[in-house]
Structure formats: C-alpha cells, structure tokens
Amino acid sequence: MAGKNCVAIGSDLRFGVQLQTITTDCPKVFKVHDKLFLGLSGLATDAQTLYEKVVFRHNMYKLREERLMRPTTFGHLVSNMLYERRFGPYFCGPVIAGLEEDGTPYLCGMDSIGAMETAKDFMVQGTAPESLYGMCESMWRPDMEAEALFETLAQCLLSGVDRDALAGWGSVIHVITPDKLITRTIKGRMD
C-alpha cells in the first residue's frame, strides 16, 4: 500500500497444506534491501527457490554496478525471471514494494509467468484477493503518512484474513520511509 513518501507491505504468518496448518511463523515478505521488499504468495517451495534466485541476481547486480537495484529495475528482473520459466512456472505471485530514489512509492504485482501490473494505491495477492480488494478500496486514501498507512494496512489485512480460512495466525507489516524501516508483528485470529 502506498502513502506519502512511504510504502508498506504485509502478510499473514500461516503456512499450511490445504486446510492443515503446518506452522504459524512462515515469512512471506522478504527484504531485498532497506528500500525494497518482495512478497511471495503461493507454493512455499517455489517462493523459497524464487527468492534465493532473486537474491543471487541482486547480489550480482550490486557487484557489477556498485549500487543497489532500483524498485522498477527489480520489478522487471523478477518479471523476466518468471517469464523465462513460463512453460514450467513457479507457482507464486510476487508483490514488490519499494521507494524510488526520489521517495516516490513503487508497487508492482505479477502473475506466475511475469505479467506485470503497477499500481499507485495498493496491490494484493494470495488466497483471498476479493476480500482484500474490498477492504483496501474502502480504507485507502491518498497521501497517508507512515503511521496512518500502517494502521490502514493492518486493518485491511486483519479484516481480509478474518474472511479467509486459509490465512491467519497474525501478520507482519513493514513500512518503508526515506529515513527508516518500521517492522511490526500483529496478533490475529488463531484458529
């Protein structure tokens, strides 16, 4: 979710196989660097593999270019990686959230073969996008400050999780601002 010179990304913490919960502290949002995060929903093994390959390519970029990758460049990198595997795709849906060098928020999502979609307000992915879209559309407003953005994303995420039997067990939310990174864990439904 985008705010005024800030962006936030969050996910629930449940890892399960169909209706069986395996663990309740599974990370689904990964830090690429201080101004860039990658959220991966879908098959956990594919998400882990994709994340490791993305980290490798980002590290190679840092060595070659001697700078961190911009969020737009990173979005195209992930899109290209997914499209390379279009005949045997990774079963995951990435969401990329970051701050550009000038402080503008960048939000990008894509399907399992890398078809990109950018947004100026919010991006959702996972098992319950319909309920998340409804909450985000009703609660998001332009130019929110970091604390208001966190509160809005937390309420949307917890409300969406409450309507989804395949999600839950709390949430983790990262808020990226030009000068700091805020990470908070929220308790949620425990069933």
From TrEMBL:
Q: Determine if Coiled coil is one of this entry's keywords.
A: no
Per its UniProt record, what InterPro entries does this chain match?
Answer: Ntn_hydrolases_N, Proteasome_beta_3, Proteasome_sua/b, Proteasome_suB-type
Gene3D superfamilies recorded for this chain? Answer: Glutamine Phosphoribosylpyrophosphate, subunit 1, domain 1
Where does it localize? Nucleus
Q: Which Pfam families match?
A: Proteasome
Cellular compartments per GO CC: cytoplasm; nucleus; proteasome core complex, beta-subunit complex
Reply yes or no: does the keyword Cell membrane apply.
Answer: no
Please classify the protein's predominant subcellular localization into one broad category.
nucleus
Q: Which UniProt keywords apply?
A: Cytoplasm, Nucleus, Proteasome
GO-annotated biological processes: proteasome-mediated ubiquitin-dependent protein catabolic process
Query: Which PANTHER family does the annotation name?
Result: METALLOPROTEASE TLDD, PROTEASOME SUBUNIT BETA TYPE-3
Q: What is this protein called?
A: Proteasome subunit beta
Q: Which organism is it from?
A: Haematococcus lacustris (Green alga)
